[in-house]
Specification:
Blueprint lengths: L1 H10 L2 H21 L7 H29 L2
Length: 72
Amino acid sequence: MTGIKNYLVKHGEGELEDLIERERNKLRRRDSLLGTNEILNIDAIIEQALHVCVLKPLKYHIYRLFVDKYSK
């Protein structure tokens, strides 16, 4: 997971950096209006997206491999 996350941040689609910057700017504008100071946690967002897109679809397959290996 960490390797995939690092790869996406460093070599992701060209729009990834632009998207991150736009979201940070939205958060800054909202913070200035509300008087708050929040940080956009890119690592957590990417990790959650990878979990949904990569791990969740593989969950059953990984479970079956585990059961097959350790039930012999």
